[in-house]
Specification:
It is elongated and about 60 Å long. The protein has five helices and two strands. By secondary structure, it is mainly alpha-helical. It has a two-stranded antiparallel ribbon. Helices cover 42% and strands 5% of the residues.
């Protein structure tokens, strides 16, 4: 599951991508449009600014904007930045690998093999979608589909 912080980061970055090239976007406008608590968004945007994904300007005409074009930011990049990994278990992470506690040897573990496949397929999808790509919202599931 994605953390609330990661979901907020995705929504904030989507908002900035939608406004790319139009000048700074005020924090209050992002918070209001994306229903993100302003205090939380302040911390989140500061982190994204320090990472080089977002730029900011203080003052009356200030705000936030993407520091790099949305075509150069994939959802995989963004989630890795926020979570550290796309993997569901630490032993399947390519960049933040850790051995699982109380588990089989990695070379014998079928769960790890499965999770590596899930991680690779997830990376293939998320690394193929950029912030500039259109994403159409999907209606909620019905009780029969859930």
């Amino acid at each position: 599951m994605l953390s609330q912080k990661t979901r907020y980061a995705i929504r904030a970055m989507q908002h900035l991508a939608d406004n790319y090239g139009q000048g700074p976007v005020q924090l209050a406008a992002i918070a209001d449009a994306q229903k993100i608590p302003a205090k939380f968004l302040t911390v989140l945007l500061s982190e994204l600014t320090r990472s080089g994904l977002v730029a900011s300007q203080r003052g009356r005409d200030g705000g936030y904007w993407l520091a790099i074009p949305p075509i150069d930011i994939t959802y995989g990049d963004l989630i890795r930045h926020m979570r550290g990994s796309l993997a569901l278990v630490p032993c399947a992470s390519r960049y933040a690998h850790e051995k699982c506690k109380n588990c089989l040897e990695e070379g014998e573990c079928r769960t790890r093999a499965l999770m590596l496949d899930v991680r690779d397929r997830t990376a293939e999808i998320l690394d193929g979608i950029r912030l500039c790509d259109p994403i159409t919202p999907v209606p909620p599931f019905t009780d029969d589909e859930a």
